Amino acid sequence: MTRRLTLAAAQLGPIQRAEGRDVAVGRMLRLMEKAHQRGAQVVVFPELALTTFFPRWYEEDLAQANHWYETALPSNATAPLFEAARRYGIGFHLGYAELTPDGHRYNTAVYVHPSGQVVLKYRKVHLPGHRDFDPVRRVQHLEKRYFEPGDLGFPVIRAPIADTEANIGMMICNDRRWPEAWRVLGLQQVELVMLGYNTPSINAENKGFEAHHLRVAHSHLSIQAGAYQNACFAVATAKAGTEDGHELFGHSIIVNPQGEIMAQATSWDDELIVAEADLGMCELGRRTIFDFARHRRPEHYTRITAQTGSEAPPRWQG
Ligand code: CDT
């Protein structure tokens, strides 16, 4: 039996600081309608999809930032997304800032079944940027201030999607650059990785230089390698364009288990891209070159979990 799914990445253009969730959700609903018209069964929205990328704005008092977070899903503001999912029979992935009842803050994503049930939740593990205001930077990136590292690991679950089932997992933005994250998903036979991102076009941390064209290349390189090396599909969705003068790049992609780009966004605005996925394609890598059970040598990988920073090698004494 072939296991086919029609996947969509729903890229969002910029959301300005002054714009409310109603603006973002209205645009997302139009993308869901388009996804329905194009036969999609899964729609992936970006990281922190309901607001501007607020970690670029410093607040001394964290409580002053509470309005950027969701305390419940669905809420009045997000309920229309859940209703649209039910109406169209589409599952959707949503990135948002989560404030828990006991006061924890996470950069979170959920996959929601068309019934409205949350099938899987993930909290971002690799938080980039810094905690304190950095006077040297032209643009702040305060994810370490506004979020704690995720406490859920990298879970994978086998979930019903349309008339089949798929092993789904998630990562969020910076996670995609870490092969460890992909491999932990791969070790759970993930077939579909959903990920959203907000990536500045310029490396503001770099007092030196990083060529602009390489920013997109590095993003694609990471996603294509992760999908290939773990024999899975990936839907990677950007929030793109200029938010209050600060540019995020787009180039959302859908990638197959061979690491090939099946669809790519061409605008830096709201844009839906769609690709047909035959989940059976995951078998080739899984049974041959990336048959983990036959070929992995974890006894030689202990450094991966034993240390964080790198260590200098011994000097050759010859
Ligand atoms: N949102 C996010 O994780 N963005 C990072 C850029 C961080 S630059 C301090 C990314 O890896 O794309």
Q: Would you kindly provide a written description of the structure presented here, covering whatever features stand out?
A:
- A six-stranded mixed β-sheet has the order 5-4-3-2-1-14, with helices on one face. The chain has a six-stranded mixed β-sheet with strand order 6-7-8-9-12-13, with helices on one face.
- The protein has one domain (4-306): Carbon-nitrogen hydrolase (Nitrilase/N-carbamoyl-D-aminoacid amidohydrolase).
- The chain has eight helices and 14 strands.
- Helix 1 (21-37) packs parallel to helix 2 and helix 4 (179-186) runs parallel beside helix 5 (212-229).
- The protein starts with a strand and ends in a 12-residue tail after the last helix.
- Helices cover 23% and strands 26% of the residues.
- The chain has 318 residues and is of the alpha/beta class.
- The protein has helices at 21-37, 79-88, 143-146, 179-186, 212-229, 282-287, 292-295, 302-306; strands at 4-11, 42-44, 91-99, 105-112, 118-123, 156-161, 164-172, 192-197, 233-238, 241-243, 246-248, 253-255, 261-264, 271-278.
- It is globular, with a radius of gyration of 19 Å.
- Residues 47, 128-129, 141, 173-174, 177, 197-200, 205 line the site of 4-methylsulfanyl-2-ureido-butyric acid (CDT).
Q: What is this entry, summarized?
A:
By secondary structure, this protein is of the alpha/beta class.
Strand tally is: 14
Q: Number of folding domains? A: 1
The number of helices is 8
Mean pLDDT: 96
CATH superfamily membership: Carbon-nitrogen hydrolase
Output the structural class: alpha/beta
CATH-defined architecture:
4-Layer Sandwich
What spatial form do the alpha-carbon principal axes imply?
Answer: globular
Instruction: Look up the CATH topology.
Output: Nitrilase/N-carbamoyl-D-aminoacid amidohydrolase
**Major β-sheet annotation:** 6 strands, mixed
Which residue ranges are poorly predicted, with pLDDT under 50 across at least 5 consecutive positions?
none
> Which ligands does the model contain, each kind named once?
4-methylsulfanyl-2-ureido-butyric acid
Q: Report the helical percentage.
A: 10-25%
